Amino acid sequence: MGLIGANKRFLWAGVGAPGSMHDSTLLQSSDIFNEIEAGHCIPHQVLVLPGYGRIHFTTVGDAAFPSRSWLLKAFPDCTKCAREKNFNAKLRSAKVVSENAYGMLKEDGESLIKSECRRCNIKAIIMCCTALHNPCIKRNDPCNPRWKLEVEDLHIIRQATK
């Protein structure tokens, strides 16, 4: 689970919850949820846009997430209201940023995670990949297949034994 900024950089990440855990349960049991609820993470500031008024800082979540003033979530898919349908479409497009960030992280770290490593190290490997993601974004230098090949050629990753 992670909190991702508009620039596809991870602002916070947590690793280790079972894959079967519901996103809403995961969010509400995370440290970041308590920090946001206490007002320590998302500032209680507003952006004033002429013609639109005061817009509070917020984050985007899935429809299953709890209702919070700092969390934008979609209206039910069955809505008949054109404004709500339009809002849902805009919200989905905003969520694409985080989906792209997760996709990039998965692609970049896949060769490391797929290599045979001790199960007890997987959380640390995922967090390392997450930490390396942001500098790569800043430098516009994503991990590409050439780099993966070079790492494999160095034999620093233990390959699966048969």
General description of the model:
The chain is 45% helix and 12% strand. It is built from five helices and six strands; from the N terminus they run ββααββββααα. The chain has helices at 23-28, 31-37, 82-114, 122-138, 145-154, and strands at 2-4, 10-13, 46-49, 53-56, 59-60, 71-72. It is globular and about 55 Å long.
For the biggest β-sheet, the strand order reads 1-2
Helix content: 40-55%
SSE topology string: EEHHEEEEHHH
Give the terminus-to-terminus CA distance: 33 Å
Given the helix and strand composition, which structural class is it? alpha+beta
Describe the largest sheet: 2 strands, antiparallel
Question: Which consecutive residue ranges, at least 5 long each, have pLDDT under 50?
Answer: 145-151, 154-158
**What overall geometry do the principal axes of the alpha carbons give?**
globular
How many domains make up the coordinates? 1
Report the mean per-residue pLDDT as an integer.
Answer: 75
Strand residues, percent = 5-15%
Strand runs, count: 6
Number of helical stretches of at least 4 residues: 5
What value does the Rg take, in angstroms? 19 Å
Summarize this structure briefly.
It is built from 5 helices and 6 strands; from the N terminus they run E-E-H-H-E-E-E-E-H-H-H. The protein is α+β, with helices and mostly antiparallel strands. It is globular.
